[in-house]
């Protein structure tokens, strides 16, 4: 018996949906097939609302011009809120880290998303990140404390040291306390750990 090359399991439309879903983080081809089958079976309850929501987000999602958070307006809800404390900025690598901090509900200031870390190996310098913009914000927003909430990776810590050098004597510099595991990304920490690390933050 000769094995067939292309199993005709489903139509090409469904196959291409499976291929796209398989590109999502955490999903491989097997999970994508299961997810698509589930969506088709729950067409009214899930598939249609999901595709509507995706179209909405595709049309409206953008980066906040001030902090780099992702939202649906030029200035995000956090930057626009009058309830957030002024004078303190929490610097994070990625939007996922900002969202992790927000989930912990312990920080009431504003954020600055760098968009990555410095990396000599990959040719990422300060200009490739939003470090110049951070320097501008410290002055224009009258910032007195910058909390460096960067991941405990080598590149994360190199970036923290670079920023600390730039802002030395301008602001109080703090970093999240020990408790953030080495190589551990903020997004993977539970709210209690983030809360404890922020409360016990250390002056650099
Ligand atoms: Zn913002």
From TrEMBL:
Residues 87-181 form the Toprim domain. Signal peptide: none annotated. Keywords: DNA damage, DNA recombination, DNA repair, Metal-binding, Zinc, Zinc-finger. A zinc finger (C4-type) spans 64-79. SMART domains: TOPRIM. It holds the Pfam family RecR_ZnF. InterPro entries: DNA_Rcmb_RecR (IPR000093), Rcmb_RecR (IPR023627), Rcmb_RecR_Znf (IPR015967), TOPRIM_dom (IPR006171), TOPRIM_RecR (IPR034137). Belongs to the RecR family. May play a role in DNA repair. It seems to be involved in an RecBC-independent recombinational process of DNA repair. It may act with RecF and RecO. This is Recombination protein RecR.
């Amino acid at each position: 018996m000769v094995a067939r090359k292309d199993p005709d399991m489903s139509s090409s439309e469904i196959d291409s949906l499976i291929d796209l879903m398989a590109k999502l983080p955490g999903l491989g081809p097997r999970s994508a097939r299961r997810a698509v089958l589930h969506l088709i079976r729950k067409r009214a309850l899930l598939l249609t609302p999901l595709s509507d929501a995706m179209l909405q987000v595709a049309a409206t999602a953008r980066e906040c011009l001030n902090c780099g958070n992702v939202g649906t307006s030029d200035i995000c809800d956090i930057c626009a809120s009058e309830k957030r404390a002024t004078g303190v900025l929490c610097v994070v690598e990625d939007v996922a880290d900002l969202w992790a901090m927000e989930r912990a509900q312990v920080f009431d200031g504003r954020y600055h998303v760098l968009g990555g870390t410095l990396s000599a190996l990959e040719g990422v310098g300060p200009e490739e990140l939003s470090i110049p913009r951070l320097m501008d914000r410290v002055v224009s927003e009258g910032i007195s404390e910058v909390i460096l909430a960067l991941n405990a990776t080598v590149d994360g810590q190199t970036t923290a040291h670079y920023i600390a050098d730039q802002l030395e004597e301008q602001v109080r510099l703090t970093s999240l306390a020990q408790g953030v595991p080495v190589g551990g990304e903020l997004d993977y920490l539970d709210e209690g750990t983030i809360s404890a690390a922020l409360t016990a933050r250390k002056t650099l």
